[in-house]
Amino acid sequence: MVRLKFLIELSYQVADAGCDFIFNIHAAHTPEQTVLSETLGISQIVQPEMYTDAVSRNRYLKLRAEAGALTVSYGATVDIRHHVAQAEQLLEVGVLQLPGTVLPYLYPSRYCQSDRLHRLAVKEFGHLRQGYGRVQAICDWVQQRVTFRSNSSTGNTTAVDTLIDEVGVCRDFAHLMIALCRAVNIPARFVSGIDYGADPALGPTDFHAYVEAYVGHRWYLFDPSGTAIPMGFVRIATGRDAASAAFATLFGGVTPSAPVISIEALPDDEGVLVLPQHGTEALSTAGADD
Known about the structure:
Elements: E1 2-23, E2 33-42, E3 49-52, E4 59-65, E5 68-80, E6 83-85, H1 118-125, H2 132-145, E7 147-148, H3 159-165, E8 167-168, H4 170-183, E9 188-195, E10 207-215, E11 218-222, E12 233-239, E13 248-256, E14 260-266, E15 282-284
Helix pairs in contact: 1-4, 2-4, 3-4
């Protein structure tokens, strides 16, 4: 088990007309991720409303802010108990055997145009043995093909754009891997969270985007950017792509500041400190029915 504590601080200057916000920054509750404690701070006097989606378990915070400065801070301590499996034993699941909740992650989406990448995916990965190893091969291919570069993409950058430009940030790596997986009938979804153990050379701690692929009747973690340690991922939101897992959606005029995020590993109740590390086993933090 890994115990992680993190803090997110988001700051905005709201225009005179005010602004409606939908935040998605709360740690997800899953059978494998237990939220031990959490705090929420809002600098303005508002009436916030919480909503948890029954399927994705994304936790939304809605509020209306008036003109002026707004700071929203959220912190949590979570215990993560990873489901661990031997990668070579995980097989792909036939389309007709997929649970209904998994089917949406087979189809193209706004940022993951799997239909346009079908021919490429079949050429590169169609001959490989079906299973976790093929998903890992797609992950490795994306990591080798694309170079991580801060501020190299925009909110409109798609998987096809990233394939052409060969540069991107973590969400671009995730979108390309997801599109290639779906193109060969492997369900894949976008996950946003906080990561412990990222290379400090990449800059301050930030939100991280990674991938979950459905093999062996479960969602398993993959990090195509190669910039973090999957064992240190704190789950916040899942979706078909970044459009459905944004940490903040704004409905009005605002000037945002860069997020300020910190994360640390803590000892468990017995005083044992477990630090996230790389490994060869397959890891999942989603329940078998998620």
